[in-house]
Design goal:
The complex is a heterodimer of chains A (about 325) and B (about 280). By secondary structure, chain A is an alpha/beta fold. Chain A has 13 helices and 14 strands. Chain A starts with 5 loop residues before the first strand and ends with a helix. The longest helix of chain B is centred in the N-terminal third of the chain and has 22 residues, at about 5-25. Chain B has 10 helices and 7 strands. In chain B, helix 1 (about 5-25) packs across helix 3 and helix 1 (about 5-25) crosses helix 4.
C-alpha cells in the first residue's frame, strides 16, 4: 500500500478553488488569518484581488460573505471547522441559512485528525450543527477526487453549502473512470450481503480496509460512501439495509447528530434496522498524531473491523 | 424634498409604527419612533431606490442592523410605495410578509437581520463587493446604541476602516436606552464617536430629529473619501408619542387600545400643526 497516493482534502480545496477561480470571475475567498493552513493561499496567489483576509474575526467574516453574496459574488468562507461551524454558528444560521444565501463554507481541520493541537481545535460537532440548519447542504468528502468534485458542485449549486475538509493526508480512493459526483447521492464502493457499513470522509477508507479484513473471515460487508450528509441518499441506505439487515455507521465526528444520526433518522422512518454508530462516543479528543488518535478512538481499519465483528457477534 | 414634506412623511411613518405594533400586540415602538425621521429621510430623499423595482441592481442598499425596529422600516417602505400601507396591520401575524424581524420576503428589504451585530457585517460585505466591481451604489446600515455592546460590531468596523470603505455609512441611533436601562448604566459604549474615530471612521454627530442636520451629514459622508462614515444621531426614544418618549418601558411593548388612542391623538396633533405650518 506504500504506493497509494495520499493528499489532505484541504489541499484539494485550495487546488479546486484556484481552478474554479479561472472559470468563475465572481468567485471570492474569505479567510480569517489561516490562508496558509486552509490552503486557500493557493487561490490567493493566483487571484490576490479576490482573496479577502478578514483577520481573526470569523463571525464578521461570515457576515461579510453574506453581504458579498447579495451583490453577486460566490463567496467561500474558509476557516477551521471549529470556528466556521462552531464559533460562527449563529452567524451561519441567521446571516446565511435563514436568508438562504449563496455562501459556501469550506471548513478545514475537522475532526480528531487535527492531531497535536488537541481537543480545543478538534471539531467533532460541525456536521450536527450544520445539519440542523434548514436548507443547508452538508458535505464531507473522502479523498482528493471527491473533495474537488464537491467544491465544484457547491459552486454550481445555488444556496448555502458547508463542506468539511481534513488536515491530514488521506489515500485517494475514488480514482476510477466511472466516478461521478452529485450532491445528495452516495455510492456503494464495495458490495456485500452480511452488513452495511456507511462511512463518510476519511472513514470510508477505514471501512474499506475493515471490509477486506472481514472478507478474509467470510463476512461480506457492503460499504457505502456518503459524502452528502444532507440531503442524505436515503434510498441507497434503505436498499442496502434491506439486503443486509444490519448497519454500522463510521464518522470522524460525534455519534450525536452526524452521519450516524442521519442514517438512524432515515432508517427509523423507512425501514427500522439495528444500527451501530462508530465515531467519537460523546467525548472530547486530545493531543496526539492523527494516526494514533484514529487508532485510539477505533476509527482506523482495525478499529472498524473489530467493532463490526463484535457487533455481528 | 423640503423639510415640511419630510416632517409630514415622518409623522405618517410614526402613525404606521404605532398602528402596526398595536395591531400585532407586540413589537418595538421605542426604537422605531426614535429612528422614524432617519427612515423617512433615507427612503424619501437619500437612497437611490425604486419602489416599482425593489431589486434593481444599482440601488443603494440599506441593512437594518437593529432589526427589532422593523416596524419603522416597514412603515417607511409602505409609505414610500413598496407595498400597501394597510398591510402594516399584518405585522407579526401568521402568514404575513412582515415578520417580527426583517427577512428577504419583504419588498425593499436588502438583508435578513435582527440578531444584533450581524447586519453591519453584511452591509460591510455589500460595500466591499461594490468596491471590488467598481460599482457606485452606496451602503447604509442602522445600529442601535445598545447593539454596540456586541463584539461583532467592532470586528466589522475594524474591517471597514481598514479597507477604507468610503461607500459605507454606519448610523448609530443613540437614544441612550436599552431593555435593561440606560446604556451607560448597563455596559457603557461611550464615547461612541471616539470609538468609531479610532476605527478609522469619519464621524459626524447630529440631532436625529433635525432634517437639515441629517441632510448635511449625508452630504458630508458622500464627500468623504478614503474612510467610511459613522453618523451618531442623538435621538429621543419613543419620539412623537408623549407617554413613550424617553421611557425604557416602551422598548418592546405594544400599546393597548386606550394607549393607542392617546398615541394616535398625539400624532394627529402634530399633523394638524404641520398642516397649519403649510398653510
Amino acid at each position: 500500500m506504500a504506493d497509494v497516493k495520499k493528499i489532505a482534502t484541504r489541499e484539494s480545496y485550495g487546488n479546486a478553488l484556484k481552478e474554479l477561480g479561472a472559470e468563475y470571475p465572481n468567485l471570492v475567498v474569505l479567510d480569517a488569518d489561516l490562508a496558509a493552513a486552509t490552503k486557500t493561499g493557493t487561490f490567493k496567489k493566483a487571484y490576490p484581488e479576490r482573496h479577502i483576509d478578514c483577520g481573526i474575526a470569523e463571525c464578521n467574516m461570515v457576515g461579510i460573505a453574506a453581504g458579498l453574496s447579495l451583490v453577486g459574488k460566490i463567496p467561500f468562507v474558509s476557516s477551521f471547522a471549529m470556528f466556521a461551524a462552531g464559533r460562527a454558528f449563529e452567524q451561519v444560521r441567521n446571516s446565511v441559512g435563514y436568508p438562504h444565501l449563496n455562501v459556501k463554507i469550506g471548513a478545514t481541520h475537522a475532526g480528531i485528525t487535527v492531531g497535536e493541537d488537541g481537543a480545543s481545535h478538534q471539531c467533532n460537532e460541525d456536521l450536527a450543527l450544520m445539519r440542523a440548519i434548514p436548507g443547508m447542504v452538508v458535505m464531507c468528502p473522502s479523498d482528493d477526487i471527491e473533495a474537488k468534485a464537491a467544491v465544484r458542485a457547491a459552486v454550481e449549486y445555488q444556496g448555502p453549502v458547508y463542506i468539511r475538509f481534513g488536515r491530514s493526508a488521506v489515500p485517494v480512493i475514488n480514482d476510477r473512470p466511472d466516478y461521478h459526483f452529485e450532491i445528495g447521492k452516495g455510492s456503494v464502493v464495495r458490495e456485500g450481503s452480511d452488513v452495511t457499513i456507511v462511512a463518510t470522509g476519511i472513514c470510508v477508507d477505514s471501512a474499506l480496509g475493515a471490509a477486506q479484513k472481514l472478507q478474509e473471515e467470510g463476512i461480506s460487508a457492503e460499504v457505502i460512501n456518503i459524502c452528502t450528509i444532507k440531503p442524505l441518499d436515503e434510498d441507497l441506505i434503505v436498499a442496502s439495509a434491506k439486503k443486509t439487515g444490519r448497519v454500522v455507521t463510521v464518522e470522524e465526528h460525534s455519534v450525536i447528530g452526524g452521519l450516524g444520526s442521519a442514517v438512524c433518522d432515515a432508517l427509523s422512518a423507512k425501514l427500522p434496522t439495528p444500527v451501530k454508530k462508530l465515531g467519537m462516543q460523546d467525548v472530547f479528543g486530545e493531543s496526539g498524531s492523527a494516526a494514533a488518535l484514529v487508532a485510539k478512538y477505533g476509527l482506523d481499519a482495525e478499529g472498524v473491523y473489530k467493532s463490526v465483528k463484535e457487533y455481528l457477534g | 424634498m423640503n423639510n415640511l414634506e419630510l416632517k409630514k412623511h415622518a409623522n405618517d411613518v410614526r402613525k404606521g409604527i404605532v398602528t402596526a405594533v398595536h395591531s400585532a400586540k407586540a413589537g418595538h415602538p421605542g426604537g422605531s419612533l426614535s429612528a422614524a425621521d432617519m427612515y423617512t429621510f433615507l427612503y424619501f430623499e437619500e437612497l437611490n431606490i425604486d419602489p416599482a423595482n425593489p431589486g434593481k441592481e444599482d440601488r443603494d442598499r440599506f441593512v437594518l442592523s437593529k432589526g427589532h425596529t422593523a416596524p419603522g422600516l416597514y412603515s417607511a417602505l409602505a409609505y414610500r410605495g413598496f407595498f400597501p400601507v394597510e398591510d402594516l396591520t399584518t405585522l407579526r401575524k401568521l402568514g404575513s410578509y412582515l415578520q417580527g424581524h426583517p427577512n428577504l420576503h419583504t419588498p425593499g428589504v436588502d438583508m435578513a437581520s435582527g440578531s444584533l451585530g450581524q447586519g453591519i457585517s453584511a452591509a460591510v460585505g455589500m460595500a466591499l463587493g461594490a468596491k471590488m466591481d467598481n460599482k457606485d451604489f452606496r451602503v447604509y446600515t442602522l445600529l442601535g446604541d445598545g447593539e454596540l455592546e456586541e463584539g461583532q460590531v467592532w470586528e466589522a468596523s475594524m474591517f471597514a476602516g481598514h479597507r477604507k470603505l468610503d461607500n459605507l455609512v454606519v448610523i448609530v441611533d443613540n437614544n441612550n436606552l436599552q431593555i435593561d436601562g440606560p446604556i451607560d448604566q448597563v455596559c457603557s459604549p461611550y464615547p461612541i464617536d471616539k470609538k468609531f474615530e479610532a476605527f478609522n471612521f469619519h464621524v459626524i454627530n447630529i440631532d436625529a430629529h433635525d432634517f437639515d442636520q441629517i441632510r448635511a451629514a449625508f452630504r458630508e459622508a458622500r464627500a468623504t473619501k478614503g474612510q467610511p462614515t459613522c453618523i451618531v444621531m442623538h435621538s429621543l426614544k419613543g419620539k412623537g408619542v408623549s407617554f413613550m418618549e424617553n421611557s425604557v418601558d416602551w422598548h418592546g411593548k405594544a400599546p393597548n387600545d386606550e394607549e393607542y388612542a392617546v398615541a394616535m391623538a398625539d400624532l394627529e396633533k402634530i399633523e394638524a400643526e404641520l398642516e397649519k405650518e403649510e398653510a
